[in-house]
Each structure stands twice: as structure tokens, then as C-alpha cells.
Design a protein that fits this description.
- It is a single chain.
- This protein is mainly alpha-helical and 469 residues long.
- It has 14 helices and six strands.
- A hairpin with a 5-residue loop joins strand 1 and strand 2.
- The termini are far apart.
- One of its GO terms (cellular component) is plasma membrane.
Amino acid sequence: MFEAFDATLIARIQFAFTVSFHIIFPAFSIGLASYLAVLEGLWLWKNDDVYLELFNFWKTIFAVAFGMGVVSGIVMSYQFGTNWSVFSDKAGPVIGPLMGYEVLTAFFLEAGFLGVMLFGLNRVGPRLHFLATAMVAFGTLISATWILAVNSWMQTPAGFSVNEAGQFVPVDWWAVIFNPSFPYRLVHMVLAAYLTTAFVVGACGAWHLLRNTAPRRARTMFSMAMWMAAIVAPIQIFAGDQHGLNTLEHQPAKVMAMEGHYQSHPDGAPLILFGIPNSADKRVDYAIEIPKLSSLILKHSLDAPLAGLDTVPEQLQPPVGIVFWSFRVMLLMGFSMLGIGLWSLWCRHRGTLHTNDWLHRIAVIMGPSGFVAVLAGWITTEVGRQPYTVYGHLMTADSVSPIEAPAVGASLIAFIMVYFLVFGAGTFYILRLMARLPRDTLPELGEGPIRTAGVAPGPAQPHGGQHGH
């Protein structure tokens, strides 16, 4: 059934499928590891058991997400040898050591301290246990740093030469790692991970506020998540703008596709809000646009000229439709997060943060928004880089292994079946864990009538004080 297909296209679809499943778990675990460190730090500082209870609740979810991230990442690495062996041969001298450093400095650090974080509180004591939690969080950030260094080098390669065999050979590791897009890409991704986690935690807290289960813990979760949304969302929008300006400098064709600029605009380019890209006729149909705003955003001048895809050879243009829409999905999620953050500030100011049911309902709906934004952002980045794997130097068509389409198609079907079964079950288990936040054992003032004559008949409550389980 795959004989009529192009092997390169199927290999790209397979890698896109596996990396899409993989990225959602690190995006969650990077932010969640830092959240766990904050929770334990607050517990040690304030001596308030609610933070320890939330730590114990989220550390189980972190362990599951971390395990699924590791498994999905291993599968991706195999594809470098099976489907992309030519790329591995040519770019291996650069990306191989960087990925090795990721394992040595980050994954070993995470794995080494993970057991202590999960099981060692009563064995090593609170302070050493907090150090272990901080090291796990630090390890996730270092892991992201190395992986983003690899990806950024593929986007904006620097610090290399090409030997007689056609391989990329590093000549300046500093320039390789800190290539032109690396700082912007790293900041953008880490902030995205924090926002992803914040909206998952916020959705969980909002869910339990709506159900009135564990109100104190739910309020703490929701409040912390909304602070993160209100503070980080505007910073992320600014960081994304700076990343876009960097992309315009080094990958202008990608920005042209993101903006839908098929034609050059010598007197100021419009910002196309929505429309249907028509690559056959080189225009955006039914475009809703704001005149000259794109020039103002990208060049800080209303009349600044902007080049279009008519200045790029057609065989070097990225697929406009995918990049155009994925970029807008990312922006929609980002500004929706900003809106929720600002709404939460208003509710906090009015004292209704924990009683506004509409805010809680929208927060539950926005729970997956971080994952959607991350996926849309990666699609924009990776599809916008086409037709290159190493931008400007190595074409995707020249990177694929000598493979047949039916073989790649068969493995793609197997991946789809296994991934949806295994990771679907894992995701379902995580959602079940989130829905089982233990109830507070005693009612708090203002949450029900105070019965001075005794406890009214009703279901038996577990013993153990206000913070018992």
C-alpha cells in the first residue's frame, strides 16, 4: 500500500509522529520538576504540610511522565540509524558528542537523584532530600540545554567545517553550542515548559475547586499556577518576539511562510491574521489583515520593506500552509494563556480567585493548552526549516537512508498502534491520578456550618488531623 509513496516523506512523517509524542513528556517534566523543588522548598521554609502533601501528590505523576519521556526518546534515537543514516554520518561528528553530553551530564544526574526524590525522604532527611529534588530539576534543565543546542545548530549551524568525506566537523565547540539561535530557542522552550506545567496544575486545582474536594490543597495549587501564568505568559510573548526577530535574520524564508508573505512588500507589509494560503496562485485567499503591522513588528517601522517568498527559489521554500497555521495556533494559545493570567490577577484583586466558577471552568479547558502550543511551535520550527535538515547545508532528501517506502510505512503503522496503546494508557493513568486528590479531613471555616454540638451523622472521615490522608 506504500509503494506509491516517497520513502523520504514517510520517514519524515514517522519522525514527526514520534517526536510529537516525545516532546509533550519533557515539556511537562521540565516544568513539573521545578514545581516539585518549589513545593518542597516552601514546605521547609513555612513548615506547612500542605506543600508536602502536594509534593507527594505530584511526584508520582512526575515519575510516570518521566518514564514515558525516556521510553519515547529512546525510540527517536534509533531512527537516526534506521531512517536517517546519511544525516547521522554527515552530522554525527557535531551532534553525536552533544547528545552524549546530554546523557552524561543530565540524564545520569536526573536518574541518579530520582530514586532519592521518590523514596528517600525518611531515609536521608529533609535537607538532603530537597537537594535531590533540586538536582532532578537542574538535570531536566541541563538536558533541555543540550538537546536545544543540537536542534539550534541544525537551524543555525556555526563553528564547523566540512571534511573530504562531506562530514560536518567541529572547529569551535563554543560556536557550535552557542550558535546564533540557541539562547532564544532555549529561553522560549523552557518558558513553554513552565507554562505547560502551570496550566496542567491550574486545571487540576480548578477541577477540584469545582468539585469542592480538598479545598485548601486545590486553592494552593490553583493560586501558584495562576501566579505562574500571570508572570511567565507576558515574558514568553516577549521572548517569542525576540526569537522571531532572530529567525528573520537567519531563516527569512521560514518567517515569510509564517507570515504568509508570498510577495514582497517594498512599502510595508501587512499582518495577515487569518486566511487560506494558496501556494498554487502565490497568495492568501480570504485574508484578514492589518496594513503595515508586520513591518512594524519585524522591522519596527510601518514603511519598512519586507521580502517575500518570490525572492526564494521555489525548491527552497518551506510548505507555507502548515507553517502558516501552526504559527497561528501557537499564538492563539499564547495569548489565551496571557488572558487567563490577567483574568486571574483581576479575580485575585477582587478576592474571587477561588470562588469564580467561570474562571475555574476555563482553566480546566485550558489544561492541555501548553501541549498544543508546544506542538504547534515545534511544527513551525521544523517544517519551516524544510527543505533542509542542516539549514543551508544539507537537504532533507540527501539525509535519508537508502530505504524502501513499504518498509518505513510498515514501521510507521506499528509505531502508531503501539504508541497510542502504551502512551494512551499512561496518559489515562496520569489523568486518573490527577482526579484523585485526597480530600481534606476537616472542614475549614467558611466552607460549611460549624456544629458546636458535635459532628453530624455522615460518611466516616479518615483520622489523622487536618493534613492526614
